[in-house]
Amino acid sequence: MDTFFINCLNGLSWGMLLFLISAGLSTIFGVMGVLNFAHGSFYMLGAYFCMQIMFFSDNYWIGLILSPIAVAIFGALIERTILRHVYQRDITYQLLLTFALLLIVDDTVRLIWGAGYYLTEPPEILSGVINVFGQSYSLYRIFLIFMGPLVAIGLLIFFQKSTWGKIIRAASMDREMAEGLGINVSFIYTAVFALGCWLAGVGGALAAPFQSISPAMGEKIIIESFIVVVVGGLGSFQGAFLGALLLGVMEAFGTSMVGDIQMALPYLLLAIILIFRPTGFFGKTR
């Protein structure tokens, strides 16, 4: 039973990181209809920016606050200058363009920081361990488990209760009608893309003390994030949360029970969902 609960905690901590990335990916698709394959690069930038800010300030919390903002600003510039030119084109153009952005950002990171691995320490208050079911467990992982639901609740309140959230939902439902009511949809799209990038930056900053930082970290998580979004339903916020939890727990138990075979489990889950429920848990047919 001890091993069971520890695996559950490991799955929850990894699932919450996946949720942050997938929530941004799902938000961008749900509002803008854009499948952003470069989303993993924004996650990677969040980790690198956090590491760099920690180097100058020696304070993780400053890095956690500032690095997602820097990623959001960078994402807004990308949307304004590059991405908006393919909105009306076939989705293959979006995938090719965002994949090209992924390669450019990854190579730029290698030029600036090199191809090596970096490690950062969690803040002192979260650097210890606590006793969980008779075993020592990382306090930082517990912090990650609580951060996911907090961000999820904040996003739900924003989209359901705030004026800006209602405007974004209106623009996503009917762009022409929103423009007819005087809503600057072009600005809304930029803001939504920046919000999605901010979520990816938060995930990267939270991942910095959790795993090694390298240029390849974005490529791995974007694949799993796409699986989460497809399993939960494209554009569904609730689906992203459920899909991230399911995939995180599945990988945690797979690592301890089936070893290297666990690498195939996410793709097996994806295949099952595509066969029996192609729209995902909360997706709708369009």
Identify the notable features of this structure and list them briefly.
286 residues, mainly alpha, ABC transporter involved in vitamin B12 uptake, BtuC, two-stranded antiparallel ribbon, 11 helices, 3% strand, globular
What is the structure about, briefly put?
By secondary structure, the protein is an all-alpha fold.
Descriptive overview:
- With 286 residues, the chain is mainly alpha-helical.
- It has a single domain, classed as ABC transporter involved in vitamin B12 uptake, BtuC (Orthogonal Bundle).
- It has 11 helices and 2 strands.
- It has helices at 2-32, 39-57, 60-81, 91-113, 139-161, 163-173, 175-180, 185-207, 217-232, 237-257, 265-276; strands at residues 129-132, 135-138.
- Strands 1-2 form a two-stranded antiparallel ribbon.
- α1 runs antiparallel to α10 and α2 packs parallel to α4.
- The radius of gyration is 19 Å and the shape is globular.
- The termini are far apart.
Helicity, in percent?
A: over 70%
Topology pattern, helix = H, strand = E: HHHHEEHHHHHHH
Output the number of helix runs: 11
CATH third-level topology: ABC transporter involved in vitamin B12 uptake, BtuC
Record the SSE blueprint:
Elements: H1 2-32, H2 39-57, H3 60-81, H4 91-113, E1 129-132, E2 135-138, H5 139-161, H6 163-173, H7 175-180, H8 185-207, H9 217-232, H10 237-257, H11 265-276
Antiparallel strand pairs: 1-2
